[in-house]
Every structure is written in C-alpha cells, then in structure tokens.
Amino acid sequence: LTSMLQASLRTQAVGAASYNRESERGPSAPQQSGGVDFDYRQAQVGATASWEIDFWGKFRRSVESEDANFLGSIAAYDNALVSLTADVARTYVLIRTLEERLRIARDNVIVQKDSLRIADVRFQGGATSERDVQQALTQLRGTEATIPLIQANLRQANNALCTLLGMPPRNLDGMLGDRSAIPEAPLEVAVGIPADLLRRRPDIRSAELQAAAQSALIGVAKADLYPAFTLNGTFGFLASDVGRFHLSQIGSWDSRTGSLGPAFTWNILNYGQISNAVRVQDAPFQELVFSYQETVLRA
User: What's residue 1's pLDDT?
Assistant: First the structure.
C-alpha cells in the first residue's frame, strides 16, 4: 500500500496579465451593447498543484532506473580508475625494466671494450687471427647500437606515464627517485573465490546496473496501460477593469478564485501504441542482458 501511495507532486506559481477584446457579434455578447465593455484588461496570480498517485509503480520504477544509472556511472568511474591504475603500474614497471636493460647494456659495453682490447693485443702478438678482433668489434658495435633504442623507449615510457598522471611530458626522475629493482608481484594474492572476485569487478557491476536501469524503464512504459489518477487544485486572485471593478482590487479577498477535484486519464484507445512502446524498451534490455553475460564470460 505504501508503494501504491507514492505519488508525483507538481506545483507551479502562475501569473498573467492580458488585454482582451470581445466580439460584439459573439454568442456571449448581449443583444443590446449599450454600456457594455467589450475591451477590458485582466490580471491573475496564483498557484497550481497536481498530485498523481503512483498506483502502477510508474514513478517508483523511474526512480529505480535513475538510481541504477547513478550507481552504474559510479561503477564506470571505478572501472576507469582500475584501468588507469593498471596502466600506471604497467608503465612504471616498463620504465624500471628499460632502466635495468640500459644499465646492463652499458655494463656490457665496458666488458666488450675490454674483450676487444684483449683480442687486439693477442692479434698484435700473433696469438690469434684478425677474425677474433672483428668479431669482438662487431659485438661491441651491436651492443652500442641498442643503447639509443633503449633510451628512446625509456623517453616514450616516461612521456606515457606523464600523460597517465595528467601532466605535460617532463623528466620524472625527481618523482621516481633513484633507480630501483624491477617490481615483482606477490606469489599469492588474497582475492577470495572466483565468484566473489567477479562480483567486485566494476565492469561487471556497470553492465549489471545498466540492465537493471533499462528493466525499470519497461515498468514505466507498462504503467501507461492503466489509468492515471490525479488530484488537481488551483488557487489565486483574479481581477479585471470591467464595469465598476479595477485591476488594483486583485489583492482583495473577494477576488480569490480556485478549484479542487480528482481526475483520471486512461489511454484506452492507444493500447497498441503503448504495447509497442513496451517492446521498444524491452529490446535494449535484452541486448544489455546479453552484454552482461558476455562481460561475465570475458571477466
């Protein structure tokens, strides 16, 4: 009963001022027009209210749909935050990996220079052929060639991390600190059983809430199949300058006007149109259900 009595209350403040000219040949004009004012002014101020009882859950389902949309937007934000966090972590690990590769490449250059020097000394002493020298030189030049490429990739990763952090590209050495080891993920992560993990995923929550919001819209469309009951009321003041009256009398208590009474509307001749409107809302709901199932399977 409580849910049935939920209602939509609409109130408005109204006011109007108009100049009117009545036809002297109209059906409401007297037979003798002598002394009758066909030109007059009229002013009105007041308020109107309409209270529609939510018998069929139209407004309740509308609120459910908006609540689901709101929660779905929060889940979408959480999903974007998870993706952003993952990209930041991935890029940070890439930076540390490239820094380690750069350090190893530079160390290899030092070692290979020593190897080249030793090979050259042995060649000069007649212990080996020139082939060993050329092999050592080729290996050294190959390692040296990898250093600019690693440095370029490191700059790209640095700029990518700046973008993810919402700042213009700049050197992040001050933020990242001294070079550290490549981060390693823990061997075990407490995530619970897989079903609980899936329930916590924001992309699944977002897909579920989108389907729930669309499902509520089906109920809103179905409510139009039944009559709508409203209680309407108006109250205000109205005055004109006809005869002995004046517009200044609009504030007088005798100028009050109002009405109060129930009403109902029922689109009994539009059953087919309303039924098709329900089908229109049901079609995207079925699509969102399949999308939800696909999201769960991918997760």
Answer: 46
**Helices (H), strands (E): how many in the chain?**
7, 4
CA gap 63, 220 in Å, rounded: 10
Closest residue by Cα to residue 209 from 151, 102, 289, 93:
289
Q: Which of these, 1, 9, 6, 67, lies nearest to 216 by C-alpha position?
A: 67
Q: Is the pLDDT of residue 31 over 70?
A: no
Of 225, 264, 266, the closest CA to residue 52 belongs to: 264
Its pTM stands at 0.68
Q: What is the pLDDT of residues 275-294, one digit of tens each?
A: 999 999 999 999 999 999 99
Cα–Cα distances in Å, from 296 out to 13, 43, 99, 150, 198? Answer: 51, 63, 38, 39, 7
CA–CA separation, 251 and 236 (whole Å): 10
Give the model's pLDDT for residue 143. 92
Sequence-distant (6+) residues with CB within 8 A of 232 are: 48, 49, 50, 51, 259, 260, 261, 262, 263
- The single-letter code of the amino acid at 280 is V
In this structure, what token pair is assigned to residue 273?
Answer: 């149109």
Burial degree of 238 (CB within 10 A; 0-12, 13-18, 19+): middle
